[in-house]
Amino acid sequence: xxxxxxxxxxxxxxxxxxxxxxxxxxxxxxxxxxxxxxxxxxxxxxxxxxxxxxxxxxxxxxxxxxxxxxxxxxxxxxxxxxxxxxxxxxxxxxxxxxxxxxxxxxxxxxxxxxxxxxxxxx
Length: 122
Fold this sequence. Notes:
Layout: H1 7-11, H2 38-56, H3 63-70, H4 74-80, H5 84-121
């Protein structure tokens, strides 16, 4: 199943169809699932996906390989993610969030250092 591309992508050649801003919400992880177990299952699936990408690359990165590595059935994987693109998008979002937090922490340290230096120069 391919992600749906918005009409604006077809109307203009200024953006490529695979750009994240054009991927609609249908590739987002499903919120459904057993209460309490959903978060752990999603984490397990994402850990499996990360392992497959690191060890096998994109050639081996399939939903079947992800499910097998995560120790879940393919049906369970599809309960939380409608397709491989949704798994990939979630991995990217999680890693991006970590990077943003690290950048923000570094920015705060730099600002504190600059303020200290300015204070010393007065």
